[in-house]
C-alpha cells in the first residue's frame, strides 16, 4: 500500500539497548534498504531537560556513525530541546534536516517531556510527513512511550509518587486507525526478587490497575528489553527482532510474539490508510514533498561541463576523434558521461 504513490517508511520500536549489539543489528537491518550515503538525524528532544542532553543524543549519534559505516552515514544531532528557547522544536532552520533524513532516531529521556515539547511542533510535523514519503523512524525507551496514544508517566509515578494515570501521547499510529499504547522495558528485572520492575518499572499488579484505566479499544504493546518491533506499514506487517518478546494485549486477548515472528498489523486493531496530510498542519505535506523532490532531482551539469561537451561536439563534426576522446576523458573526470544520441549529446552522472 502507498500514500499517493509514496510508500511510507518503516517504524522501529526498541524496548531498550539502542547502542547494544542487538540494537546495532536492528539499525543495520533498517539501513540495508535505505539510500547510500545514509542521512541520519538524531533528535535530542526527550532528554532536552537534562544538562547533558547533547551527550545523551551524541552517544547514539557516535554509535550509529560507527555501526552503519558501510552505508557512509551522514549523522546530525538536532538539538531541539525546549520550546521558547533558541533550541526550539519549532525552529525552521534547526529542524530542516528532518525533511531530508532517511533515518530519524529519538530515544532516552522523559516520555511526558517529549510529548510536551513535540505535540503540534514543527519538528514532529516534519518527521511524520517525511516518514509518509519513505523515511524510516526509530524510537527507543522514553520515545517509544511518547509516541503512544496514551503515554505512561513513568517518572511521575515511579519516582515522584503521583497517582496512577495516563497522559495523551503523540499518537503516531492514530491516523492509521490504531489506538496503541507502547510499554518498553516490559521484562525489566532491575528490582530483583524484592521489587517487581517489569512493565516499564510499574510492576505487574500496578500495571493491571493502569491497564483498566485505558479505553476499551486501546491495545497495549509490551516490548522486552534488547528487543525491537519493526513495523512495515507498506506491507501491513510487523516483525520482532532481538533477544526477547513482544506482548500484544487487547481487552479480549493476549498474544506473545518471539524473535523472528512476523504478524499482521490487524493484530493491533482495524488498520486503515490515512490521507497523506492527515494529522499534519497546513502546508507540512507539500513542504515534505518539495524537499523529497529536490533531494531526488537529477543533477545538472556545470557550465564547465557543458562547454566541454560543446567543444567535443565541434571536434566530432570536424572528425578530430583524438580531440573528441580527450574531451570525453576530461568530462568524465568532472563526474559526467557523454552519451551520443540522435537528438545530440546527453550528459549523465558517472555512477
Task: For this entry, give a set of tags.
351 residues; alpha/beta; four-stranded mixed β-sheet; 12 helices; 32% helix
Can you walk through the features of this model?
With 351 residues, this protein is an alpha/beta fold. Helices cover 32% and strands 21% of the residues. The protein contains twelve helices and 16 strands. The strands form four sheets. An eight-stranded mixed beta sheet has the order 3-2-4-5-1-10-11-14. Strands 8-9-12-13 form a four-stranded mixed beta sheet. It is elongated. The model has no long low-confidence stretch (mean pLDDT 94).
Helix-strand makeup class: alpha/beta
**Strand count, sense and closure of the main sheet?**
8 strands, mixed
Note the total helix count.
Answer: 12
Q: What is the 3D form?
A: elongated
Please indicate the percent range of residues in DSSP E strands (runs of 2 or more). Answer: 15-25%
What is the rounded Rg?
Answer: 24 Å
**Amino-to-carboxy terminus distance:** 31 Å
**Could you report the average pLDDT, rounded to the nearest whole number?**
94
What share of residues is helical? 25-40%
Task: Record the strand order, biggest sheet.
Answer: 3-2-4-5-1-10-11-14
Number of strands: 16
Residue windows where pLDDT falls under 50 for at least 5 positions: none
Instruction: Encode the helix/strand succession as letters.
Output: EHEHEHEHHEHEHEEHHEEEEEEHHHEE
Amino acid at each position: 500500500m502507498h500514500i499517493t504513490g509514496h510508500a511510507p517508511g518503516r517504524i522501529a520500536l526498541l524496548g531498550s539497548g539502542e547502542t547494544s549489539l542487538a540494537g546495532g543489528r536492528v539499525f543495520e537491518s533498517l539501513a540495508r534498504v535505505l539510500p547510500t550515503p545514509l542521512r541520519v538525524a538524531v533528535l535530542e528532544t526527550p532528554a532536552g531537560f537534562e544538562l547533558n542532553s547533547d551527550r545523551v543524543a551524541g552517544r547514539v549519534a557516535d554509535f550509529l556513525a560507527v555501526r552503519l559505516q558501510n552505508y557512509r552515514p551522514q549523522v546530525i544531532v538536532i538539538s531541539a530541546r525546549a520550546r521558547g528557547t533558541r533550541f526550539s522544536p519549532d525552529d525552521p532552520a534547526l529542524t530542516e534536516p528532518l525533511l531530508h533524513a532517511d533515518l530519524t532516531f529519538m530515544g532516552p529521556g522523559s516520555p511526558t517531556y517529549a510529548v510536551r515539547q513535540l505535540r503540534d511542533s514543527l519538528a514532529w510535523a516534519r518527521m511524520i510527513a517525511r516518514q509518509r514519503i519513505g523515511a524510516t523512524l526509530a524510537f527507543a525507551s522514553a520515545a517509544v512511550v511518547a509516541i503512544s496514544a496514551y503515554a505512561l508517566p513513568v517518572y511521575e509515578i515511579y519516582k515522584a509518587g503521583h497517582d496512577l494515570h495516563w497522559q495523551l501521547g503523540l499518537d503516531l499510529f492514530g491516523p492509521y486507525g490504531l489506538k496503541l499504547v507502547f510499554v518498553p522495558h516490559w521484562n525489566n528485572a532491575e528490582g530483583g526478587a524484592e521489587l517487581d520492575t517489569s512493565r516499564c518499572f510499574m510492576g505487574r499488579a500496578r500495571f493491571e490497575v493502569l491497564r483498566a484505566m485505558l479505553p476499551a479499544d486501546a491495545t497495549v504493546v509490551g516490548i522486552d528489553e534488547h528487543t525491537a518491533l519493526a513495523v512495515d506499514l507498506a506491507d501491513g506487517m510487523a516483525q520482532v527482532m532481538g533477544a526477547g518478546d513482544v506482548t500484544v494485549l487487547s481487552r479480549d486477548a493476549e498474544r506473545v510474539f518471539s524473535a523472528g515472528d512476523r504478524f499482521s498489523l490487524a493484530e493491533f486493531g482495524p488498520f486503515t490508510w490515512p490521507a497523506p496530510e492527515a494529522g499534519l498542519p497546513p502546508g507540512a505535506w507539500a513542504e515534505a514533498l518539495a524537499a523529497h523532490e529536490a533531494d531526488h532531482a537529477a543533477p545538472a551539469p556545470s557550465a564547465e561541463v557543458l562547454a566541454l561537451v560543446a567543444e567535443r561536439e565541434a571536434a566530432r563534426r570536424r572528425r578530430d576523434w583524438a580531440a573528441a576522446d580527450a574531451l570525453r576523458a576530461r568530462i568524465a573526470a568532472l563526474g559526467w558521461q557523454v552519451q551520443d544520441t540522435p537528438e545530440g549529446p546527453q550528459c549523465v552522472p558517472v555512477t
